[in-house]
Amino acid sequence: MTKDDPHPDKLPVSSVRNLGPAMEISFARVGVHTAGDLRALGTDAAYEKLLQSGSRPHFIVYYVIEMGLQGRPWNDCKGKEKVALRKRFDALVARSFDKGRSDFEAALDRIGVIKRV
Q1: Domain 11-110 sits in which CATH superfamily?
Q2: Which residues pair with 5 in a beta bridge?
Q3: pLDDT per residue over 12-68, tens digit each?
Q4: Helix 59-69 to helix 35-52 angle, to the nearest 10 degrees?
Q5: Domain-by-domain residue ranges, the chain?
């Protein structure tokens, strides 16, 4: 690598496929400044940082990150893969976002017994 050709991990978050300036700003707010930072964290840990900083959960954002880290188009997530990602997303949101609920309420929410607020 040269000065004019930096290592891919040192490039900004927006160099990851599907991620633009808005995601770069959001990630910078939580200490994720480079594509390498994002890759090292992975989708779940990086998205959890966004949730813990007050970002509202949104499934499309989550799978856009996942697809981008795999180098795939954002809309390439379909079928069983999308269903599996949705389960990961729901579990992550239940752990990270619904902090006002007791563990018991969060468990009931995960199995669909109580409505989300």
Answers
A1: 5' to 3' exonuclease, C-terminal subdomain (1.10.150.20)
A2: 2
A3: 999 999 999 999 999 999 999 999 999 999 999 999 999 988 888 899 999 999 999
A4: 160
A5: 11-110
